[in-house]
Amino acid sequence: MPTDSANPTHLFEPITLRGLTVRNRIWLPAMCQYSSPTGTGMPGDWHLVHLGARATGGFGLLITEAAAIVPEGRISPQDAGLWNDAQRDAWRPIVDFVHGQGAAIAVQLAHAGRKAGTYRGFVGEPTGVAPASAGGWEPVGPSVLPYPGLATPRELTTGEVAEVSRAFASAARRAVDAGFDTVQLHAAHGYLLHEFLSPISNRRTDAYGGDLAGRAKLLLDTVDLVRAELGEDRPLLVRMSATEWLDEADDSVDPTVRGLTLNDAVTVAGWLAERGVDMIDVSSSGNTPARIPVGPGYQVPLAARIKAELAARAQSAGASAAGAVPAIGTVGLITEPAQAESLLVTGQADIALIGRAALREPAWPQRAAHELGLDWHTAPYPPQYTRGRW
Fold it and tell me: What was the pLDDT predicted at 315?
């Protein structure tokens, strides 16, 4: 429980992960912006203003949109990237501005896998597979199985899969050089790392397929290489989809139909913890169409289950394992301050990630501070904005 009378909330308690202390537990999740000049992967003015506004708005840590580790890892031709040094240099002033507002910043590293090479789908623009004439390319995946409605991917060879891990590590090195406080590996929403985890999309028979351990090999190998690039002081974050929302309670259903289950996700989360992952951002779905029970906080029970299981395992292992439990974040229609605060008070999560509400309201944390009774002097206002305080 918080003890500082000037900071009477859980949301506004700082949190420390390795050598990084974040000023509060209201974090901005990665959200696609599709606003880089076509084919370049370069962040620019849009990214500075988008992220800068949320930094001045009081978010504790901001996670960039997915930055592709290789050109063919982009979702669309307008995706940002971190596969070359020019992109690294373009991220630096954005990172510096965010730091100047007292916020921390992570880059989400990603490979879109079989969902790559599509139009960005802005209103009034085409949707679906982008042809080469529009900047598209052939996607790759764990197996020759397309996402419904998209192009059939080319199956990566065993050697190419190993190269994916090295590409993530190279991008992580550029992230460190650009000044990012941490990186997040995107293992959710049907993109490449998730595709390998799920038996829906992974039918391989080599070391990267088969049982859950085989399907998790790419993710775990990537964690090991990226962890080494980050060093001991920078934390490592992973975003994962905890379920496909497909008949997972019925063990009689073929796993290739049932997909990744919450029980699987708990196991993978344990492996991530053992390898030094410091925070798991729990989301869901994205690898195949499903009927999802969308509603306020609909993914919170997934995060709560993973948090409880990891804590129980650490407790049974003894005091030496207590520090190995990663922080757990939850996301998905968390829109009101009291709702977000309750998730932390009840121990369902350690961090609340505010996505769509943050697009509508870049200063959401400032309103939250007011509604939760935080003294405005300690609320996350930049000095220039205190006259507009709640």
Answer: 85
pLDDT at 3: 43
CA dist 233 and 228 (Å) reads 11
Strand partners for 135:
none
Axis-axis angle for helices 300-317, 262-274 (nearest 10): 50
pLDDT number for residue 320: 55
> Residue 78: what pLDDT?
98
Q: Which residues of the chain have pLDDT under 50?
A: 1-3, 5
36: containing domain? 15-388
Residue 83 lies in a domain: yes
| DSSP secondary structure letter of residue 210 | S
Q: Is residue 25 part of a domain?
A: yes
Q: Structurally, how many domains does the chain consist of?
A: 1
Q: Is the Cβ–Cβ distance between 78 and 35 less than 8 Å?
A: yes
Tokens of residue 242, six digits: 């905890």
Contacts of 59 (CB under 8 A, 6+ apart): 24, 26, 27, 28, 103, 354, 358, 364, 365, 380
Enzyme catalytic residues:
191
CATH number at residue 215: 3.20.20.70
- pLDDT reported for residue 255: 78
DSSP per residue over 3-28, as a string? --TT---STTS-EEETTEEES-SEEE
Residues in the chain: 390
Task: Please give the pLDDT value at position 171.
Answer: 98
- Choose among 338, 344, 310: nearest CA to 324: 310
Q: Is residue 311 part of a domain?
A: yes
